[in-house]
Amino acid sequence: MGCGVFAVQAINLRRNPILNFLLVNRWPQLAIRIITLAGFGIVILGGLVGTPVGSQNISIVLLWIAWWGLLILFAVPILGRGWCNICPIPLVGEWLQQGTVLGPVKILRGISLHRPWPKRWRNIWIQNAFFLGLAVFSTVILTNPVVTSLAVLALLLIATGMSLIFQKRAFCRYVCPVSGFIGLYSQAAPVEVRVIDTQICRDHPEKTCLTGDENGYGCPWGLYPAAITKNVNCGVCMECLRSCPYENMAVNIRPFGKGLFNPRERKLDEAFKSFIMLGGALVYSVVMLGPWGELKLAAYLIGSPAWLVFAAALIFSVVVLLPGSLYLGIRFSGQRLTAFQLRREFINQSYALVPLGLAAWIAFSLSFIFTNISYVVSGIGDPFGWGWNLFGIADHAWRPYLSTVTPYLQTVVLLAGLGYTIYTSVKIARETSHDQSSLPLIGLSTALAMGHLWVLIG
Amino acid sequence: MKPAAVLDKKYLILMGIAMAVIAFAPLPDRRTEPETVTVQIQAESYAFSPGIVEVEKGDTVVLELTSMDVVHGLYLDGYDLSVTSDPGQTARLTFLADETGSFRLRCSTTCGALHPFMIGQLKVGRNDLLWRALAAMLVIGIYGVWSVRRASD
Amino acid sequence: MKSETLARSIVILVFVTLLTWLGLAASDRMDILNITASMPERGGWQPGDFTARVGEPLLVHLTSHDVVHGFAIGQMEGFEAEVLPGKVTEVELVFSEPGTYTYYCTRWCGPNHWRMRGTITVIGEGKPEAEVVTQPLYLRLGIDIDAEHPAETIPPGKPSAQEGIGLWGMVPSTYAAEMLLRSSSPAELFIRMRSDSGLERVSDQAIWDLVALAYWNLTSEAALEEGQRLFSENCAACHGVSGQGDGVFSGQLGEDTHQAAIPDFTDPARMLGASPALLQGKIVRGGMGTGMPYWGTIFTDEQTWMLVDYLWSMQFDYPIDEGSKE
Questions:
Q1: Mean of pLDDT values over B70-95
Q2: Which long-range contacts (CB under 8 A, 24 or more apart) does A246-249 make?
């Protein structure tokens, strides 16, 4: 399949000695994780002791403007699971599980039962459900410091508790609601951790990347690094770089979206994740950014009849309506498909929604991040709304930034997302020579992108 | 038979030209006599009503903001103007609508939890960016369909 | 395992430092009285009452937990602090006389805004300030402010103070007495003037113009302006900017009120039968059960009269050339 435009060779970042040191040495990662842990500590504390006014409380400002902005505008599209590398949520649990702070140790001395995660749940259905479960409460979580604080605290406690019962980063891989979508979208990211020469791995009897050694832990995400072919489950924690005695693991720069064309390991749970995410971004945009006050109140007044309708509509559209229309579209696309083929085409095509979904989240987030970024300044100056004036910036007045540029950025992002989605769809359809499977996806994604753009800049 | 590439140079150039035309083709001005348009906007429960205000380029716009519950503000994107209204006390914002496009009205005074999402729209004239972008999306979609057809022929 | 020890020390150091700093910062707040404001249905002022000592400055941090509020103390003119969501306004209160003061919200924060009041008890030496030296006029006159007060007669057209100027020379000076004007309704004043033999040849409309002028003479541009400001800040949310009873909260007064129809201040039949003293009583005492708050602890006597004066400007044509006023 000729594709001159995207035929760029992967570049291994480890060839640069400085980057190699930063990636492999344990200290930089630990230092950043201590900082992010302190940051999350402030988020939790801020919600509990600070003002209940979200825009003036560091917990909302730090998490939903600063962290979310960096995550969705930079970390996920550029680094894929880069955030997971420095995420503090499982950190305390890992310390207890491993018995060390810096690590590594060959024999884990921590206080965990090290149980294997149940086979039945080795997929991301829990993450899908967890994300949707949070999504129906999103307007409250997003605006209410105490709720944000308790939600983060709950994640921290669940992660820590799971580290004490299960092996490795079971929480990250199978439960964390954020991890699920970062993993899905990391397929589009231009960074990957891959083995350089699989033959070296086959000839390596100890397989230290699995078992761990005095330089690094066995893969905390439960993968066999030599067999990594897609980004979804690789947390780019760099342990295999450390434990491999042959420097056989690379951190590659690759073309955007390349990971989507990998026909192996496409799964129904991940297919649904792509619908949940794309649909979620659209529903959020309509509810939070639209001019319709009733929708906002419906989403906010948890427990009210209007909220029940909102929650049901949200779940219905992302779990039934969107996947259902693609499924039926492929079913009636004029091809002869067996039930197995139909299911496979449906799953395959769902992956094509990854670029548009990511673009939709970026476009949605652009609408409120730069608008509200001035709260980050005043929030750092007076984190709890107690009248502090650290660095003399507490009185920085609210003012939207880049509001005239944002619509153009959103347009470009959505156009790029749509283009890449359609390109991916057509290319994926050719893998199985069922070209027409991409017709319904093209129609669906074009319509959704147009609708989304209308909501955002119309 | 080997199917044609999804993207080959010839068609990419064609797409590029199409996109350039969509992006830059001059559109006729929608000429109207300038008027003074007075719009009463009520602010209540995280919403402006009407939520969408439409005027023509060149109009003098008077926005009369009345809060119906708590103190609200109104900040107008693009024009960088703002005004505050206490409940029952109407505040006025007068300006010349000389920038075309769709601009967001945002509440500028913290008015409760959903304050950051209290958003309305001011549409001045025709929203060229939106129409051009929608056309571009349509072209991308059509190109996709066409490349499928081309492959299955 | 030297590096492991170092790593652990760093972790402990970072978090101990963070918590110590926070603890110290929080303890700094101990000497300050923190008052939070929320909409009345969510708690209003917290604390709802506090104590101060005469002559001792009290440092207060005001903050709002939801929307914009304002802080002021009743009968203390010229002092008002904005209370903004999530922001802290620092004020220093010094009381020179003991007594009980009312502090209240100055910015409309919902239909129950006016319920948002608290009490400051000031203890110490000095003459008690809150004791009312003279009773308000409506009490001295023994007016039943809850009784109906229809106007005995109403003017054919809107009375104009300007029009009355030319005839004012004919009016006996008794009609300019403040006590008489404050205690009689415009309709009563009209009836008295009408039956005055000196004014026999003057038309009804002209008499009404004289009535308007008589009330105008009691007030001033500045007082009317202040009255208008007080009205729009404190009254217009229910009574409407125009006074017609169509304010933004007119349809949603609290459920425990009788939802009595809000009076139309532009209706002559209703208003011209009320004396300034009666209106003063309604403002000072409030209308029990109708949702009308009491303002006695908040407005000064002077402010109440300015409000009453302003109400007459809804009945009478007041714009008047300053030069032609006697």
A1: 92
A2: A246/A200, A246/A204, A247/A14, A248/A195, A248/A196, A248/A197, A248/A200, A248/A201, A249/A193, A249/A194, A249/A195, A249/A196, A249/A209, A249/A225
- Identify whether residues A126 and A205 lie together within a single domain: yes
Residue A266 is assigned to a structural domain of this protein: no
Q: Which of A260, A289, A314 is the last residue of a domain?
A: A260
By C-alpha distance, the chain A residue nearest C61 is: A387
Choose from A25, A26, A34 for mutation: most chain C CBs within 10 A: A34
pLDDT tens per residue, range A210-266: 998 889 999 999 999 988 999 999 999 999 999 999 999 999 999 888 888 888 889
CA distance C276 to chain B (A): 25
Q: Are residue A43 and residue A159 in the same domain, yes or no?
A: yes
- C13 near A CB under 8 A: no
Confidence of residue A1 (pLDDT cuts 50, 70, 90): very low
> Which tokens is A431 given?
């893998």
Give pLDDT, residue C153.
86
Sort out which chain C residues have CB atoms less than 8 A from B86's CB and list them. 107-108, 233
- pLDDT tens digit string along A35-62? 999 999 999 999 999 999 999 999 999 9
Give tens-digit pLDDT for B58-77.
999 999 999 999 999 999 99
The answer on A234 and A282 residing in a single domain is no
How far is it between the farthest Cα atoms of chain B? 75
- Cβ pair B88:C247 closer than 8 A: yes
Minimal C-alpha gap between A383 and chain C (Å): 10
Asked which of A229, A260, A291 is the last residue of a domain, the reply is A260
B13 touches chain A (CB under 8 A): no
A425 and A381 share one domain = yes
Taking an 8 Å cut-off on Cβ atoms, the answer to whether A52 and C66 are in contact is yes
The verdict on residue A5 lying in a domain is: no
Cα-based torsion angle of the residue sequence A271, A276, A278, A283 in order, rounded to the nearest 10 degrees: 160
Same domain, A94 and A156: yes
The C-alpha of A439 sits at a distance from chain B's nearest C-alpha, in angstroms, of 6
Is the pLDDT at A73 greater than 50, yes or no?
yes
Beta bridge partners of residue C83, listed in sequence order: C69
For residues A220 and A282, membership in a common domain is answered with: no
Q: Is residue A117 part of a domain?
A: yes
Question: pLDDT of C170-216, one tens digit each?
Answer: 888 888 888 888 999 999 989 988 888 888 888 888 899 999 999 98
pTM over 0.95: no
Q: Is residue A265 part of a domain?
A: no
How many independent structural domains does chain A possess? Answer: 2
Mutation target among A294, A296, A330, A356 for the B interface, most CBs of B within 10 A: A296
Among B49, B86, B115, pick the best mutation site for testing chain C contact (most C Cβ within 10 A).
Answer: B86
Q: Does the beta carbon of A310 lie under 8 angstroms from any beta carbon of chain B?
A: no
Looking at the structure, do residues A145 and A185 belong to the same domain, yes or no? yes
Q: Any residues with CB less than 8 A from the CB of A237 and at least 6 apart, and which? A: A84, A85, A220, A221
Q: What is the pLDDT of residues A315-333, one digit of tens each?
A: 999 999 999 999 999 999 8
The verdict on A287 and A256 lying in the same domain is: no
ipTM for the complex shown: 0.93
Residues from chain A contacting residue C37 (CB–CB below 8 Å)? none
Residue A373 lies in domain: 277-457
Tell me whether residues B130 and A419 touch, CB distance under 8 A.
Answer: no
Q: What are the chain A neighbours of C39 within 8 Å (beta carbons)?
A: none
